[in-house]
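Long-time lurker, first post.

We've been arguing in lab meeting about whether adenosine-5'-diphosphate would sit comfortably in this protein at all. Half the group thinks yes, half thinks no, and nobody has a model to point at. So I'm putting the question to the forum: if I give you the sequence and the SMILES, can you give me back a predicted structure of the complex? Inputs are below. Any interpretation is welcome too.
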Amino acid sequence: MRDRYTITERLDHGGMAEVFRGVAESMEGFKKNVAIKRVLPNLTKNQKFVAMFLDEARLSLFLQHANIVQVFDISRTPDNAYFLVMEYVDGCNLKSLIERQKQKGRRLEIAHSIYLMIECCKALHYAHSLEHPETNEPLGIVHRDISPPNILLSKNGEVKLVDFGLAKANSQIESTDPGVVKGKFSYLSPEAASGIEVDHRADVFAVGILLYELFTGRRLFYGETDYQTVELVRQARVPSMAARTTRSSSPAPRRWSARRWRATRRTDISTPPTWATRCRSSCSLAG
Ligand SMILES: Nc1ncnc2c1ncn2[C@@H]1O[C@H](COP(=O)(O)OP(=O)(O)O)[C@@H](O)[C@H]1O
Ligand SMILES: [Mg+2]
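Top reply:
Settle the argument with this. Predicted structure of the protein with adenosine-5'-diphosphate, as tokens:
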């Protein structure tokens, strides 16, 4: 890794991998900021896991979209630690933004939340409909882990999905050690929670869960234990948003009156820079 990539800081670590910020230097001396995701050493010995990581990493090389973190390279260190090199997103993830807003007793504005989810949907629509470039066969890509830590917000207001194609590997970890990914169960679809094979609808369901959380400031499916959370997902009972919306300094509307809808529609939620600018400022708040 040292030949071409220099690590500058560790950004995060989870049950499967560590993510670093680094610099890629080309032969001509050009430098570029990158993010490097390295499989944890204890998993490098797990052949099945490594095979899955590589399959999924290859898949992520197909993905080229403004709302998906671009993967540039897949390689391994001399001591066999596999790593991915990605574009570096200078900003924060949605989880830290939600947490910071909660600490302040605030919620994101409705149009801002919708903007974030529209950007996620653009990425999902692209990935879900992607075909193999040579055979034109549908690739059947499903992210399977649409959740706040996997939604990155850049300081320029961009919204980018990360962990694409690694989700299958992640779900493998979940089934072996639920404690490692505690909290992720909240964004499962009922079919995933029941162990049934999922398709693209599982990702769309997760976007719905996120919208609910952003609008109300409350998790939709969240039990005291992982088991309870999975049970809540299976039942898929969705409490009324109005009933769960509490007062705060930036409250979501108690009732979506016709006036409120008109006001939301008047705001052009799909056009930067208005909402991209909001993203930018929220990102600095979450830091
Ligand atoms: N390309 C990136 N640029 C900036 N930060 C990143 C990038 N990729 C991941 N991160 C940070 O690392 C965290 C974990 O990354 P992720 O790929 O989701 O790993 P894991 O498989 O452990 O969930 C993200 O929530 C984000 O905060
Ligand atoms: Mg992740």
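For your lab meeting: The domain at 5-87 is CATH 3.30.200.20 (Phosphorylase Kinase; domain 1). Residues 166-183, 248-253, 267-273 have pLDDT under 50 and may be disordered. Whichever side wins, do check it experimentally.
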